[in-house]
Design goal:
Length: 155
């Protein structure tokens, strides 16, 4: 199984992105974490993208403020990119949400909700994408849903 790349714009994004990493661990999906910024380390983002297809099946890109990271990565690879908007600025993540979701036609970034729930959903969506190829992940997704259902019904 190739890995998921979890890329974030700054180390300061890590506390929120922990819920993404925790969920990937729960599904037993291998991943790498990278701190890279389209604004601050553009050359490193480009070299990461140039090699990404050898190692990764899905890329998760999380960033706050003007979150160009996911869009730039999506522009440089044909792997599916999931963008996680983060509440890091006085605009509380709306800035990040709009800059991730409003990609022009042809270069999509699959966008999840702002913050911790989005970080978790990015991991689940990555697993769903990988489950197309790895049937054991589909079984794990079914058990995950069952567990969730049980928790709701048991209160
Ligand atoms: N949006 C981006 C990008 C980018 O899009 O390339 N690089 C860093 N950032 C974001 O800037 C915020 C503040 O970063 P610092 O805390 O390092 O100042 C972080 O949420 C990061 O994701």
């Amino acid at each position: 199984m190739k890995k998921v790349a979890v890329v974030m714009g700054s180390r300061s994004d890590m506390p929120v992105m922990e819920s993404c990493l925790k969920t990937l661990r729960e599904f037993g999906v291998p991943f790498d974490v990278k701190v890279l910024s389209a604004h601050r380390t553009i050359d490193e983002v480009i070299s990461f993208c140039e090699k990404a297809e050898e190692e990764y099946e899905v890329i998760i890109a999380a960033a706050g403020y003007a979150a160009h990271l996911g869009g730039v990565i999506a522009a440089k690879t044909t792997l599916p990119v999931i963008g996680v908007p983060l509440d890091a600025s006085p605009l509380k993540g709306i800035d990040s949400l709009l800059s991730i979701v409003q990609m022009p036609g042809g270069i999509p970034v699959a966008t999840v909700t702002i913050g911790k729930a989005g970080a978790k959903n990015a991991a689940v969506l990555a697993v769903e994408i990988m489950a197309i190829k790895y049937p054991e992940l589909r079984e794990k997704l079914k058990s995950y849903r069952e567990e969730m259902k049980k928790k709701v019904l048991e209160g």
